[in-house]
Specification:
It is a single chain. The chain is mostly helical and about 130 residues long. Helix content is about 50%, strand content about 5%. The protein has three helices and two strands. Helix 1 packs antiparallel against helix 3. The longest helix has about 30 residues. The protein is elongated, with a radius of gyration of 20 Å. The protein starts with 6 loop residues before the first helix and ends in a 5-residue tail after the last helix.
């Protein structure tokens, strides 16, 4: 059984993927906090409205047996972008502020933990619905 078929599980997976990718980017920023000329990067946050619109958009109808069903291509919104105007730039051109990066790491961990908790609760609900929840 592929849990990705359920909309909520797909959204949870997207959130966990985003959190994982962001942690990698933030770790790279922290590792380069002393590299001259390095500008920090970040990932654009997930757009909840766009995700809902993708999920609720109508599917193409297959009106003939020769039509290919296909699947809509899901463009990856996990694009790493350099911060163009960091709040603070050191004299050597480095724009990484450790305090800012640590706050982002904590925020991302919280979002990952929330998604993981929601995933566990959904699994429990599925188990309860088939009668093996305890």
């Amino acid at each position: 059984m592929d849990l990705q078929q359920f909309t909520l599980f797909g959204m949870i997976k997207d959130q966990m993927d985003w959190s994982s990718k962001r942690q990698q980017v933030l770790s790279r920023n922290i590792a380069n906090s002393d590299t001259p000329g390095y500008l920090p990067s970040d990932i654009k946050p997930l757009d909840f409205k766009k995700t809902i619109a993708e999920v609720t958009s109508p599917q193409l109808a297959v009106t003939d047996g020769n039509h290919l069903m296909g699947s809509p291509s899901k463009t990856s919104s996990l694009r790493v972008e350099k911060e163009r105007h960091p709040e603070e730039i050191k004299p050597d051109g480095n724009g990484v502020t450790l305090e800012d990066q640590i706050m982002k790491v904590g925020d991302t961990k919280g979002k990952y933990d929330m998604a993981a908790s929601l995933y566990q609760k959904q699994i429990m609900l599925l188990k309860m619905s088939v009668g093996s929840g305890r």
